[in-house]
Amino acid sequence: MLRPVTAVYACLLSAVFLSGAAAHAQKNPDLALTPPMGWNSWNTFACDVDEKMIRDMADAMVASGMKDAGYEYINIDDCWHGERDANGRIQVNKKTFPSGMKALADYVHSKGLKIGIYSDAGNTTCAGFPGSRGHEYQDAQTYAEWGIDYLKYDWCDTKDINPIGAYTTMRDALAKTGRPILFSICEWGDNKPWEWATDIGHAWRISGDITPCWDCEHNWGSWSSWGVLKILDMRDALRLRQYAGPGKWNDMDMMEVGNGMTEAQDRSHFSLWAMMNSPLIAGNDLRTMSDATRRILTNKEIIALNQDGLGIQAMKYIHAGDLMVFAKPLENDEWGFLFLNRSNSPLDYTHDWNFFELKDDQFNRHIDFTKVKFTWTDLWKGNNGDTINPLKLQIPANDVVVLRLVPKK
Ligand code: GAL
Question: Which residues line ligand 1 (CB under 6 A)?
């Protein structure tokens, strides 16, 4: 007679235990409902990071108008680390961060901003500092005590580690802290995270590292870094968009706007990242950026495409030689349209709206332009028109025209 009772009791106990565990075992559901926006140190500073520069960057994010435009996170990438102490607790590099991470987080928070940090699922980070392997719960707890709001979690030194297991462990460790910490997966798309990470992270990189060029690949031997068009083309945009949405974004990497490309290339880069619902994480020096760079990064109409509440990534609508057209469903039956000239010479193109029916089978949206008419606004130039008349475009080399379409009443 005792046996069944014991079995029932054991079942109950494990149910209680499992539900206790389940309460922690989810990513924070309230974060990244629109793509995260912020700044990250890596593209400009690599390992040359210190607390004064990070504080200055927080100041510049406010002074430049970027905070007002929606940018929120100040993210420190690799190389902030010191050693682990005798208890295994990770320390900051005391030379470059003498006041400690908590004081820096307090400063960033005092500006009305949030702070992000970087670690790695392996034993060492890509720059050779201590990774979180075997210290996941301890590190997450330390980050929470410091007041960290965002974790980018890299994939170096991970031979024989299962990516789903490793990223799930850190997700659970972050959840256990009780602090809302956005979890950004960075394994470069190698293990197709879009197929398994939607319940694990808030964004996942889909490519190797970006570099500030239009259509180049820099081959470093065992890995490459990629220009803007290379990242755009790397994964089939149509296939990946089905996995993304509020709280789960395809991350095309931190931006290179202001890092040496032409103004047209920067404008295209920014517009494409916005349309694709990539996180908008600036990677330039905010303290010294030109007016042209600042205007690109703070174009509120382009940002509004990215931050639209529907959270639907743009689809590839037309690809004909050097011309690509992307369409993005927006709230209230509005649409974003991006016309990209990939080539190094100007492109003349007349778009007859009535000629191309638009079908988005993945998100079940459809426009027959012969029946529904829209007005449009050019989000870079400010001029207006409608879809009754063909659209005559002259797109300079490597440039874009981006429109918002609103249904005519
Ligand atoms: C790479 C990552 C970069 C940067 C770098 C730091 O793996 O893709 O964005 O974080 O590591 O070492």
Answer: 42, 77-78, 118, 125-127, 154, 156, 186, 209
